[in-house]
Amino acid sequence: MKTKILNLLLTVFLLQGHAQMNWKKYALAGSTAFASGMIDGTIESISFHYQNGFKSRFPKANDQFWDPSISWRNKYKNGDPSCGPNFPGSTTAFAFTSDAYHLLRTSKRALDTYTLVYFINEDRRIKCKKTKRRAALKDFAILTAIRCVGFQITYGYLFKPLKS
């Protein structure tokens, strides 16, 4: 785990080469990318390692909200899809209010979209097309590495399945 994180951080530094790194530029977008990675790691953990990963770390977690194998029913009246939506929008626009899986996915998408919009607006300030392409590739690599560190901390360490 530690080796993976160190490798990712080393990659970030190597991508930068000998140029000076403007860390302030990545503070906000890097934070949202990191949080997105952590949320993604949590989504994967509750989806594929609920009992021996997530639940083992949070034994008092409400299964009806956190366990995707049962929480998806929260969108429906009496937990039964044949009874229809639990309330208007519970199966569409407001599904994120029904369970952790949908809430986390909605939050992750919002953070990813914010990061994208932030860097599109930053990119507009650069005049030269060649410089834009290089800057975009560098930004993509750095933010992806930061996001991967967030994912690894959550999925590979915090919610790593316990061996039986």
Structure description:
- Helix content is 68%, strand content 0%.
- It is mainly α.
- The longest helix has 30 residues, at 129-158.
Gyration radius, rounded: 19 Å
Order of helices and strands: HHHHHHH
Q: Which residues sit in consecutive blocks of at least 5 with pLDDT less than 50?
A: none
Q: Biggest sheet, in brief? A: none
- The overall strand count is 0
Cα(first) to Cα(last) distance is 19 Å
Structure classification: mainly alpha
With helices defined by DSSP (H or I, 4 residues minimum), what is the helix count?
7
Mean pLDDT, all residues: 83
Oligomer: single chain
Fraction of residues in H or I helices: 55-70%
Shape: flat
Strand content: under 5%
Q: What is the secondary structure topology, with strand pairs?
A:
Blueprint (H helix, E strand, L loop, with lengths): L1 H15 L6 H26 L1 H8 L5 H4 L1 H4 L28 H24 L5 H30 L6
Helix pairs in contact: 1-7, 2-3, 2-6, 2-7
Short summary of the structure?
This protein has 164 residues and is mostly helical. The protein has helices spanning 2-16, 23-48, 50-57, 63-66, 68-71, 100-123, 129-158.
